[in-house]
Design goal:
Strand order of the largest sheet of chain A: 4-10-9-8-11-12-13
Number of domains of chain B: 2
Number of strands of chain B: 11
Number of helices of chain A: 20
CATH class of the largest domain in chain A: Alpha Beta
Distance between the termini of chain A: 25 Å
Order of helices and strands of chain B: EHEHEHEHEEHEHEEEHEHHHHH
CATH superfamily of the largest domain in chain A: von Willebrand factor, type A domain
Shape of chain B: globular
CATH superfamily of the largest domain in chain B: P-loop containing nucleotide triphosphate hydrolases
CATH architecture of the largest domain in chain B: 3-Layer(aba) Sandwich
Number of strands of chain A: 13
Strand order of the largest sheet of chain B: 4-7-10-3-11
CATH topology of the largest domain in chain A: Rossmann fold
Radius of gyration of chain B: 22 Å
Oligomer: heterodimer
Structural class of chain B: alpha/beta
Helix content of chain A: 40-55%
Structural class of chain A: alpha/beta
Shape of chain A: globular
Number of helices of chain B: 12
Strand content of chain A: 5-15%
């Protein structure tokens, strides 16, 4: 759990909604059903999409709606019209050539947008124009190499779309344009002619890419001789970023970071715990004094009353989403159906009375278990009250809908590794020790206890001392195992968290992404198993990187009926 | 015998028998109707070779109309029966009813639709075949065979089918029940029975160009350059909703019928956006409307105004 103060700006629900809409448009335009945003990048299932064209990279400056739409549409066209294997085999190894080639291929598919998608064409044009302006304004085009690339991009785009180059920069690129046009003119004409044929197009695109590469190298050697590149330094640094294809884009803010963990992949058998002898599982109600619990409960009740949430309506919503009609006895006194023998006498006594029949009755019944797993790590302390209120309302509504619920939490027994770390240091700190902390898994409310009886225990969420560090992967695994022991047919796990797994000692002894990798692996395994549906509720953070079904929200600002109905949809499986 | 090429404008050398006279049961010809090659050939095989044909497809693709229009061009009398969960054996086979004969009330057996059509050169179409209760549908088990005779138990009579009796069915599902949640009320059919249908044709959505032609044929007022462009954008929206449905983003989709309705409503309201809201958007779940608005933007390059409701 990230406890640092320099947390990036919160990822809001609006952003997530926009992303969902864009991903939905990609799915509809391309017909690939498994495309979605995970951690701000487009993924096909669990695999990130190899989209490298520079004008489609997520960029803080290009966050307006038409730009996002343009990028999404471009990706959809790429999925439709590019043979990925062919593209990969043709990709040149030199970074500059590759940069040009990727961009040209993307521009090619963009010209293939069908005429009846007028909006798509407009979005694409907007995105490219906005990107070009951003490129120009950022000063990237100032250096010789930047200017050359910018000019070539503008020329290719203008040729492919049969539109004039951007008016704003037309004079700026004029000289370069003139000097390179003689060398590229043949291939430029070929670009437009062969835009429907990937292989034929690639020949011309590669020719341009290599020509640009050669020109840049030439310029570079000339520049090295002069050593006057001081003014260029900024442009060069930014330029490097353009060429950085295989980075995981960790520098994009606001997403749960994902990275490869060397310790995780190298360690024998993957994830392990150094010692489990200090791990505990405890009823949360016993960790807090009774009187204090009642105090907390009173505080929560006051807060809930002031919110004015319609629990009955929420309960109906849950019934609608999670219950399935099941045969439940008979309904008597019907006008049609099976004859009810006990009423035959009535037929004799009052022949006009026709309600002699009975029908099988189907009532919605929820054979469903919803478990909430709360991340009780240090940074969640600020959210404690809102989360407690939120969960209490959900638990109550689910209880009313006849759905079994559990409320679980996870934290650690100590800061910085506690006794496990001491043991490890005593053993002279062997390498790759695995998880180094005492886990505490807390049960606030179990399946048998009703919401009414568990009321004081739920209030234990307000106890700030319980919040320490968090090892999400093992907690999710624990919750799933618990859920599998329950008889309910459908099991849904909602993980409430505001960050990625964080345990200082473990991270220091292994590496930064060790716990995150494990969480990802556990969720993927449990999802593949299919017995438990796992959703994530991110507080000011997009948990899409870990959970395929996730919702981002900001508490307590959005603690209202709308949030509840969104959570209901998330649990019901409507949200992707 | 007449050639399929002339009758249906389909590229095929097949010849089909055509009745010379039309009677009251022959459906009217819709000159704007466009035939789908595969399905038409399947239906024609049913007519000319006495095969039992079931047409399966999503709603609004024109399954029943397709059979009717083929029959209309063959001058073949046609009877459509809409099945539902309450159609019983008595409705299909016949029942004793009280009739007046020489001023006297007598009970007399009245034939149901199945024996009635069996004895005539009629194409019997079971619409929404998968809505019929499977136990009741066993009534037609025997006539599904080509030369199957039909025994009227109530009368100890065996009916030999007329040589030009034909049987068709249309359904939304393939008899496996309501898998996608879209077709509430459909039944899981007995597969011994599904097996007896000789030909199962699938009619799904057409290529966009063909669908645009259909829309233009149905709404002739749109048949100019601007109208054509509008129609192709409308069909493009419909196609996006279908992809969206397939991807699980939407719970409902636009059928060709919806597109035609939309085009017709455009003529009434003179505004595609308003007509779109009235013909489709309001049928969607509240939560799905932003997604549909996004599709609309892609095809029309206009924002769909938020609902004013």
């Amino acid at each position: 759990m990230s406890t640092d103060a320099t947390a990036p700006a919160a990822y809001t629900r609006e952003q997530q909604e926009t992303e969902e809409l864009c991903a939905g448009a990609i799915r509809a335009l391309s017909g690939s059903a498994s495309i979605r945003y995970r951690g701000r990048r487009l993924h096909d299932g669990h695999r990130p999409l190899p989209i490298h064209a520079s004008h489609l990279q997520p960029d803080a400056a290009l966050q307006d709606l038409p730009s996002l739409r343009g990028a999404a549409d471009s990706v959809a066209l790429r999925l439709l019209h590019t043979d990925a294997a062919l593209h990969k085999s043709l990709c040149p190894p030199e970074p500059v050539a590759r940069l040009v080639f990727e961009l040209l291929e993307q521009l090619r598919v963009e010209t293939l947008a069908p005429e009846h998608h007028a909006g798509v064409i407009a979005n694409l044009r907007h995105r490219f124009t906005a990107w070009s302006h951003a490129f120009y304004d950022s000063g990237l085009a100032e250096g010789a190499s930047g200017l050359l690339l910018y000019t070539v991009f503008q020329m290719c785009w203008s040729r492919l779309t049969a539109r004039p180059v951007l008016e704003k920069t037309e004079d700026f690129i004029e000289a370069t344009r003139w000097s390179v046009s003689s060398q590229l003119s043949g291939d430029l004409a070929g670009l437009r002619r062969h835009r429907a044929d990937q292989a034929a197009f690639a020949r011309h695109a590669l020719a341009i890419a290599h020509a640009v590469d050669a020109m840049l190298k030439e310029a570079q050697t000339a520049q090295d001789g002069q050593q006057d590149a001081a003014g260029d330094a900024k442009a060069q640094a930014a330029f490097k970023l353009l060429l950085d294809f295989d980075s995981d884009n960790d520098n994009i803010p606001e997403a749960a970071p994902l990275g490869d963990s060397r310790a995780f992949s190298d360690g024998a058998g993957g994830y392990k715990a150094y010692s489990t002898s200090y791990d505990r599982e405890e009823p949360a109600g016993e960790l807090v004094r009774r009187a204090l619990l009642l105090d907390y409960r009173e505080r929560m009740d006051g807060r809930i009353a002031s919110l004015g949430i319609n629990t009955a309506r929420l309960a109906r919503r849950f019934t609608q989403l999670l219950a399935v009609p099941q045969r439940d006895g008979w309904s008597f006194g019907e006008e049609e159906g099976y004859i009810d023998g006990r009423r035959l006498a009535q037929l004799i006594s009052s022949p006009s009375e026709r309600r002699l029949f009975r029908k099988e009755q189907f009532l919605p019944q929820a054979d469903c278990l919803v478990t909430f797993l709360v991340d009780c790590s240090g940074s969640m302390k600020t959210h404690a009250e809102s989360v407690a209120v939120l969960l209490d309302i959900l638990l109550r509504a689910l209880d009313q809908a006849g759905i079994t619920t559990e409320l679980l939490g996870f934290t650690t027994g100590a800061w910085n590794g506690g006794r496990v770390k001491r043991d490890w240091m005593r053993a002279r700190s062997p390498a790759n020790p695995g998880r180094l902390n005492e886990l505490v898994h807390m049960v606030f409310k179990d399946g048998q206890t009703s919401w009414r009886r568990a009321r004081p225990d739920i209030a234990a969420l307000l106890k700030a001392d319980l919040y320490r560090e968090g090892v999400d992967g093992e907690a999710v695994d624990w919750a799933c195992t618990r859920m599998l022991a329950r008889p309910e047919q459908r099991r849904i796990l909602l993980v409430v968290s505001d960050g990625c797994p964080m345990d200082t000692a473990t991270n220091l002894a292994n590496d930064e992404f060790y716990l995150a990798q494990h969480l990802k692996q556990v969720v993927a395994r449990r999802e593949a198993q299919g017995a438990v549906e796992i959703c994530g509720l991110g507080l000011g953070l997009d948990l899409g990187a870990y959970y395929s079904r996730s919702l981002a929200t900001t508490l307590p600002a959005s603690l209202n009926n709308e949030l509840f109905s969104e959570i209901a949809q998330l649990l019901g499986g409507r949200k992707k | 015998m007449q050639s399929v090429r002339n009758l249906f404008h389909i590229d095929s050398d097949l010849l089909v028998p055509v009745f010379t006279e039309r009677d009251t049961h022959v459906p009217d010809i819709d000159p704007a109707y466009r035939f789908n090659k595969d399905v038409t050939l399947a239906i024609l095989a049913g007519f000319s070779h006495n095969r039992r044909v079931m047409v399966q497809g999503l709603h609004g693709t024109g399954k029943s109309t397709h059979i009717e229009q083929v029959a209309a061009r063959l001058n073949w009398p046609c009877v459509r029966v809409n099945l539902d969960g309450h159609i019983s054996r008595l409705d299909l086979v016949g029942k004793d009813a009280i009739v007046l004969r020489e001023q006297q009330q007598v009970t007399q057996f009245q034939e149901g639709i199945v024996p009635w059509s069996l004895q005539r050169p009629v194409a019997l179409i079971f619409d929404e075949y998968d809505a019929g209760r499977p136990d009741v549908m066993f009534v037609i088990q025997r006539i599904l065979e080509r030369d199957g005779k039909f025994t009227l138990l109530d009368q100890n009579r065996v009916i030999t089918p007329h040589p030009h009796f034909r049987l068709f069915a249309t359904s939304n599902t393939v008899g496996l029940g309501n898998l996608n949640g879209m077709y509430h009320g459909t039944q899981v059919l007995n597969h011994a029975q599904i097996d007896r249908w000789n030909i199962v044709a699938t009619l799904n959505y057409l290529p966009q160009a063909e669908e645009t032609e259909i829309v233009l044929a149905r709404v002739p007022a749109m048949n100019d350059e601007a109208g054509r462009q509008l129609a192709s954008s409308m069909v493009a929206v419909a196609s996006l909703t279908r992809h969206g449905y397939a991807a699980g983003d939407l719970a409902c989709l636009m059928s060709p019928r919806t597109v035609i309705t939309w085009a017709e409503n455009c003529q009434i309201f003179h505004d595609p956006a308003v007509a779109f809201r009235l013909s489709f958007l309001n049928k969607c779940d509240e939560a799905e409307r932003p997604m549909v608005a996004e599709y609309y933007q892609r095809c029309f390059n206009e924002e769909l105004p938020a609902s004013q409701a």
